[in-house]
Amino acid sequence: MNGRERGFLLLTSSLGNPDRKPLTVAQLRTLNHRVRQAEQIDQLRDVTPQDLLQLGYDATNARRIVDLLEQEEQLSWYVSEGNKQGCVPITRVSDTYPVRLRERMGLDAPGCLWAKGDLSLLDQPMISLVGSRELRPLSEAFAAEVGRQAALQGYVLVSGNAKGADSVAQNSALAHGGKVISVVADALQDQPQQTNVLYLSEMDYDVGFSAARALSRNRTIHALGSLTLVAQCTLGKGGSWDGSVKNLKYGYSPLFVLDDGSEGAEALIQMGAEPVLGSQLEDLSALKPFTKSLIDQ
Predict the structure, then answer these.
(1) DSSP line for the chain
(2) Are residues 140 and 215 in the same domain?
């Protein structure tokens, strides 16, 4: 890792210490803005309290940032321990960081993604699939067909590794010789090494499951795909609904929802998602982007 990558890790990771308080995405965004405007600091790890005072920070926050950047020994240990378990960091300034996340999320993109598995999958065409954990038969068949068609048409399937639509689509893709990227909401280090699979985490590799993580990672799932397909969602609640509404608001990717007549699907269609049927999946490249979202009108 170069100096900038180490700086991002030092600022965004707990480094295995639950008492360590790294910067939030919002705080990192503010720091980025101030550094860019000042054009006087080339590498974040080299800053001094005086540098930060000149950027408008008070003494307490200036000292906090410098203290985070000085913990190089802890960083080296943490990265080494992660490597032993197959986990590697990809910071927002790394060459291997997904371009789509930078382009679609800007400075709100995760400061670091931890990865385990086949990193080459990040350079291949991707489509994303989201959906409920408890599936109706039509939705289950749709999720399975998305996974199958992704494999047959040469797309990496991006999903969330959860029960229901995620697992159905992922298993189908792998069963048909395809490839999968799973953006997990639990500990990355506990995921198995699998052929044709890459696990990604927005959090440190040793952080366990939380409901907040499950919601947050949906934006990454939506933003990685050239399009996102919704197998099923419940009107007004759940991660599939929340992530899809935010996609329509922020434009992470073109959004398509199974046109099953459900309240959730109908509501997303009214907000700008495109309806789709299983019979339309035979040529994923022919699916057209969604129309202007009603959220923005």
Answers:
(1) --HHHHHHHHHH--TT-TT--PPPHHHHHHHHHHHHHHT--S-GGG--HHHHHHTT--HHHHHHHHHHHT-HHHHHHHHHHHHHTT-EEEETTSTTS-HHHHHHHGGGS-SEEEEEE-GGGGGS-EEEEE--SS--HHHHHHHHHHHHHHHHTTPEEEE---TTHHHHHHHHHHHTT-EEEEE-SS-GGGSPP-TTEEEEESS-TT----HHHHHHHHHHHHHHSSSEEES--BTTBSHHHHHHHHHHHHTSS-EEEE----HHHHHHHHHTPEEE-GGGGGGGGGPPPP---GGG-
(2) yes
Asked whether residue 74 is domain-assigned, the answer is: yes
Reported pTM: 0.92
Give the span between the Cα atoms of 158 and 197, in whole angstroms. Answer: 10
- Closest by CA to 251, choosing from 232, 275, 273, is 273
Q: pLDDT tens digits for 223-281?
A: 999 999 999 999 999 999 999 999 999 999 999 999 999 999 999 999 999 999 999 99
In a domain, 99, yes or no: no
Domain span at residue 53 reads 3-84
The predicted-structure confidence for 182-192, as pLDDT tens digits, reads as follows: 999 999 999 99
Nearest to 182 by CA among 206, 147, 149, 212: 147
The residue written with tokens 């952080």 in the block is 207
In a domain, 107, yes or no: no
